[in-house]
UniProtKB/TrEMBL annotation:
This is Fe2OG dioxygenase domain-containing protein. Residues 213-314 form the Fe2OG dioxygenase domain. GO terms for molecular function: dioxygenase activity; metal ion binding. It comes from Sphenostylis stenocarpa. Its cofactor is Fe cation. SUPFAM superfamilies: Clavaminate synthase-like (SSF51197). InterPro entries: DIOX_N (IPR026992), IPNS-like_FE2OG_OXY (IPR044861), IPNS-like_sf (IPR027443), Oxoglu/Fe-dep_dioxygenase_dom (IPR005123).
Length: 366
């Protein structure tokens, strides 16, 4: 006879499977007129945290860095590198403006994500998949069948942007042109940021690029529908990113928070800005010099919220090579804090673990 816990697990699994099989995502629930958050999305009371903000706390304001003239003014570049260094060590997050991506491109990128997610379900279904190797696919909750206690109130499509974008016919018309355009801009900014991170570590500018930190880039494009009971569920559960670093485009709605000193701090949207955050892999290779911060997204009565996260990761071959703390950053006083691993091993652990609030770096610490 099954125990209560086994029965509960089977019930939850059947509910998640039924949701998955609709291929309509959270948007489908909203379109169906749901007025209550289904049980599989409800965060258990013991796992819930207060959704505090920092709107009145000016000491917790993430830096906004102006990149204007960085290519022509050496003294300003040095100054900006120091700001990036402090932000990456303290917060693991900062925002950038004057990054040379036109506002019109940012707006069209958000519009393209919205257009795709608001297609009729029958038109989106052909792209619905849980095969993470596909160059373009759409689903809801990559860890749907994981052990996390509640699903997140969002849908997502993922698109390979670099080194090779999908064939045009593999990308939906609703977002095809802008994705192929956006990838060119995002790579240029990504290389600049890697140079700044390298210089912040007193390494040559090309060091992190040559290490393979920008060999593969994915766009993770989220759609957070308006939620009827936002206090009962999360847009995205607390986690740190499974990459070297992330360039995030968020809309005006807000909801992104980072954990600092056991408090949740808002990263308020800045018009025309992009959010930059350090990922687990950069924390590992810099031996904790740069910080991968835990962050989350609140659900909201207002929606949809749109965001586009570009993840910079190792390429296919590099994913199998040993990855460990950079030798130039080590000394007797600062020995390695992590064992060598591979991106393949790390990613497998991250995916199996899901967004359960635990650090994905913990198993690799010495």
């Amino acid at each position: 006879m099954a125990t209560t816990s086994e029965s509960d697990f089977d019930y939850v699994l059947s509910q998640r499977k039924a949701f998955d099989e609709t291929k309509a995502g959270v948007k489908g629930l909203v379109d169906a007129g749901t007025k209550k958050v289904p049980s599989i999305f409800r965060v258990p009371p013991e796992k819930s945290e207060k959704k505090v903000s920092n709107l009145s706390n000016t000491s917790h304001v993430i830096p906004v860095i102006d990149l204007a003239d960085i290519h022509t003014d050496a003294s300003k570049r040095h100054e900006l590198v120091e700001i990036v260094k402090r932000a990456s060590q303290t917060w693991g997050f900062f925002q950038v403006v004057n990054h040379e991506i036109p506002v019109s491109v940012l707006e069209e990128m958000k519009n393209g994500v919205k257009r795709f997610h608001e297609l009729d379900t029958k038109d989106k279904k052909e792209f619905y998949s849980r095969d993470r190797t596909k160059p373009f696919f759409y689903n809801s909750n990559f860890d749907l069948y994981g052990s996390q206690p509640a699903l997140n109130w969002r849908d997502t499509f993922k698109c390979l942007l670099y080194p090779d974008a999908p064939k045009p016919e593999e990308i939906p018309v609703a977002c095809r042109d802008i994705l192929l355009d956006y990838r060119k801009y995002i790579m240029k900014l990504g290389i600049l940021l890697l140079e700044m991170f390298s210089e912040a570590l007193d390494l040559i500018p090309n060091y992190l690029k040559d290490l393979g930190c920008a060999e593969r880039v994915f766009g993770i494009c989220h759609y957070y529908p308006a939620c009827p009971e936002p206090d009962l569920t999360m847009g995205t559960t607390a986690h740190a990113d499974n990459d070297f670093f992330t360039i995030l485009l968020q809309d005006h709605i807000g909801g992104l928070q980072i954990r600092c000193d056991d408090k949740w701090i808002d990263i308020n949207p800045v018009p025309g800005a992009l959010v930059i955050n350090i990922g687990d892999l950069l924390q590992l290779v810099t031996n904790d010099r740069l910080k991968s911060s835990e962050h989350r997204v609140l659900s909201n009565h207002v929606g949809p919220r749109i965001s586009v996260a570009c993840f910079f990761s190792p390429g296919a071959e590099a994913s199998l090579r040993p990855l460990g703390p950079i030798k130039e950053l080590l000394s007797e006083k600062d020995p390695p804090k992590y064992r060598e691993t591979t991106f393949t091993e790390y990613e497998a652990y991250f995916v199996a673990k899901g967004l359960d609030g635990r650090s994905a770096l913990a198993p690799f610490k010495i």
